[in-house]
Design brief:
Blueprint (H helix, E strand, L loop, with lengths): L6 E3 L30 E8 L8 E8 L2 H16 L5 H13 L9 H9 L10 H11 L5 H19 L9 H22 L4 H6 L8 H20 L25 E2 L2 H10 L7 E2 L2 H14 L4 H10 L3 H6 L5 E2 L4 E4 L1 E6 L2 E6 L7 E4 L2 H21 L20 H15 L8 H12 L4 H8 L4 H7 L13 H7 L11
Parallel strand pairs: 4-5
Antiparallel strand pairs: 1-2, 2-3, 6-7, 7-10, 8-9
Helix pairs in contact: 1-2, 4-5, 5-6, 5-8, 10-11, 11-13, 11-15, 15-16, 15-18, 16-17
Length: 491
């Protein structure tokens, strides 16, 4: 590859209109030194030929000094050296060099090197939309639910707002602007929903708002994707993760509220809950367990376990015969039965704090022993057709429970009982509140619920039934708070 020297050139023309270029006599002084005021410095560099074999040169003549021209020439050579023996890549880099306009800087070598290592054409700048699509497709070892959440964030929010931005050009300002637009859209939807005009309300029917908690999850998806773009040794596309430096409005955890007599009266008048997270009083919880025992004895022991031991739905359904020891009144949570879309799946609990062993209070122990006796009769009736999955809680035919079925039957029981509404997950909030009411400290509640930090526990469970001060063993007393009318009925 031949190359011309760094030279000085001007745009003067002779009498016939022909450019003089490097031959202009005004470029040098009388003594032969270069003129300080006439002409510009430049260079020419032989480039790899085009695909058809035609020669081409890079000519850049806009520099104020020979040193600037020499530095730019060195940069051009360094870019061409990235191709090595790859003729196709050499042509791509040559195309890139020729596309740079006069007076504009050459591309950064490190940026082009990252594209080359990533298998991206040297002339193309991978956009955020392209990268996120590639990133999600390359993620193999993630839970189906996590993949679905990533895909939703990318499809609904990240690609529409940031998809056109080059990954190397992405800045904190781009991401902040995206969340500003998301918030504005959510505000518009909320305002339209409150309008007196039915047409305006209809215009946002079916549209969903994106609150602070969801925005934080969207940011987490982008932050993870960009962190991977940095951490991959052979595919380091960027050096800075702007998603890690975007400030969002804090997602406030809803506080647990108690269904006091006043709250119940207002609910009956307005059909509105004081908070998304509601807790029954012990009397209300006892009334529900009595009703469930009388009307759904099959699921009754699951509700008892969640209410008294604070398990999540998936944790209760994930218990197995090998993790429940009724002789020593212990249960271990290490598996959860949840859903991927609608499909039920069994998977390990996510955290070390969630993987826990807890003692069973006498009320739960009695209900679970009665359940085992009942389950043995189901198995006896089914005979050899009984499917032994190893799960502790199963349907009368031996099949494992579908989580959605358990929730639907719980909701129906609450509705039919006439009690103020709570979610199945709120039974877990009841367990935390009752335990705190007995005098247990926040650490006791954290360990029972399997939270990773006490901060999570204290931020969520602030409702304390101060009128209930019980001077007994904390865990036993927490269960004893729930009054029962049907106490002792086993099967």
């Amino acid at each position: 590859m031949a190359e011309g020297p760094v030279h000085k050139i001007c745009t003067c023309r002779n009498a016939h209109g022909t450019k003089l270029g490097t031959k202009c006599p005004r470029l040098r002084r009388a003594g032969g030194s270069w003129s300080a005021t006439h002409g510009r410095w430049g260079y020419q560099l032989e480039l790899p030929p085009k695909a058809n074999g035609r020669r081409r040169q890079l000519r850049r003549n806009t520099f104020d000094s020979s040193k600037q021209a020499e530095a730019d020439l060195t940069k051009a050579k360094d870019l061409l050296s990235l191709a090595g023996d790859d003729a196709t890549l050499a042509r791509e880099i040559a195309d890139l060099l020729q596309a740079v306009k006069a007076g504009q800087p050459l591309p950064d070598r490190d940026v082009i090197a990252k594209r080359v290592r990533a298998g991206i054409p040297a002339t193309a700048d991978m956009t955020i939309g392209e990268y996120l699509t590639q990133w999600l497709a390359s993620r193999r070892k993630i839970e189906p639910g996590t993949r679905r959440a990533y895909a939703s964030h990318i499809r609904v929010h990240l690609t529409p707002h940031l998809g056109h931005v080059g990954i190397q050009q992405l800045r904190v300002e781009h991401i902040a602007a995206m969340f500003t637009k998301i918030t504005e859209c959510s505000t518009m939807i909320e305002i339209a929903r409150q309008s007196d005009d039915p047409e305006i309300r209809a215009s946002v029917r079916g549209m969903r708002t994106t609150g602070p908690a969801t925005q934080e999850r969207i940011r987490a998806t982008l932050r993870k994707a960009l962190r991977d773009a940095i951490s991959q040794t052979n595919n380091r596309l960027i050096d800075f993760n702007p998603a890690a430096h975007v400030e969002l409005e804090s997602a406030k955890q809803p506080k647990a509220r108690v269904w006091t007599a006043k709250a119940v009266q207002r609910w009956r008048e307005t059909d509105k809950k004081p908070s998304p997270v509601m807790v029954w009083t012990p009397e209300q919880a006892g009334a529900f367990l009595d009703y469930a025992e009388a009307h759904d004895i099959v699921l009754y022991p699951i509700f008892v376990g969640i209410l008294h031991r604070g398990m999540r739905r998936g944790e209760a359904l994930g218990l197995r015969d090998t993790t429940v020891d009724l002789e020593y009144a212990l249960a271990t949570v290490d598996l959860q039965r949840t859903t991927d879309g609608y499909e039920p799946v069994d998977k390990k609990v996510k955290s070390d704090s969630g993987n826990r062993t807890f003692a069973l209070d006498s009320f739960t122990l009695a209900a679970w022993r009665a359940y085992l006796a009942r389950r043995a009769r189901w198995q006896l009736v089914s005979g050899p057709t009984w499917p032994d999955h190893g799960h502790f809680f199963v349907q009368p035919n031996g099949d494992k429970w579908h989580p959605h079925t358990v929730t639907k039957r719980f909701d129906r029981l609450v509705r039919d009982s006439g009690l103020p509404p709570i979610r199945l997950h709120d039974l877990r909030h009841c367990a935390a509140t009752y335990l705190k009411a007995t005098g247990a400290d926040i650490k006791d509640v954290q360990e029972l619920l399997g939270h990773s930090t006490s901060t999570i526990t204290s931020d969520t469970y602030t409702s304390v039934l101060t009128e209930l001060q019980v001077e007994r063993d904390k865990h036993e007393a927490a269960a004893a708070l729930v009054p029962r009318q049907r106490r002792g009925r086993a099967s």
